[in-house]
Structure to design on (292 residues):
């Protein structure tokens, strides 16, 4: 199994990060504007990216320092994978440690998703710091795969 | 061992990507302005990031579709690791497949470097597409670790 990992940090309150991860309005402001369902523990959120399809994600855990997701539908490579968000403290900073675990192959699509996650984490950081993220469809394009 | 992977693509010529990876002037325009040494096969390049230190990297391979680096000095986590740049073609796009291999631990510093590599790959893409990248010290900051 292979894992995508990322780290960002902000001096903004951890509650703002948690809000962006656990509410539909928050998720719409940094990942994709086309999101519906429930982002609370036990809920399922449906994220869509126009012609590029999307993901259905079950929220397995919500705590002040952790949000856990399990992918239940989407591209074959994503189904059954887990996404973890841990929020830790480092001095004046709230740190977000991101893991997307359970990739069965280090396929080219995983390379793309790793870079794209970094783009969306920058969008999340911008959202909590400035009030404006860059969710799809106005996300930063990195390649022919968007 | 753990690996950081990324993927970007551009419609600009592969030669521009190769030039940005294999010349000191090119590297200075997207990774760090403080780079010296030789970026050709068999050479060693010294990359510095002000008070954050830097890396000495041996160039192990240069070909039209591949550049190989081996880290010979820098943070303990980086020493002995390998960085591979593969350039492939997908329709109208030249694709850059990036691997940073040989991480002995999935430590928090690896999470940071994964996100930071994505930031610098965006800088590389901007350089070949617009003529202007965002190398250190004017790189995009992602956290308290820069």
């Amino acid at each position: 199994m292979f894992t995508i990992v990322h780290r960002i940090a902000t001096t903004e309150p951890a509650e703002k990060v948690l809000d962006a991860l656990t509410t539909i309005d928050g998720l719409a402001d940094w990942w994709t504007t086309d999101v519906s369902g429930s982002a609370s523990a036990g809920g399922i959120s449906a994220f869509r990216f126009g012609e590029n399809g999307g993901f259905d994600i079950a929220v397995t855990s919500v705590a002040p320092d952790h949000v856990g997701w399990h992918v239940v539908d989407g591209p074959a490579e994503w189904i059954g994978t887990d996404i973890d968000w841990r929020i830790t403290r480092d001095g004046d900073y709230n740190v977000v440690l991101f893991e997307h675990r359970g990739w069965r192959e280090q396929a080219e699509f995983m390379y793309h998703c790793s870079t794209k996650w970094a783009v969306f984490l920058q969008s999340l950081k911008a959202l909590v710091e400035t009030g404006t993220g860059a969710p799809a469809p106005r996300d930063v394009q990195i390649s022919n795969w968007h």
Chain A touches chain B at residues 2-10, 90-93, 95, 97-98, 106, 108, 110-112, 114-115, 118-119, 121-122, 125, 140, 142-145 (CB under 8 Å). The two ends of chain A are 25 Å apart (CA to CA). Chain A has one domain: 2-130.
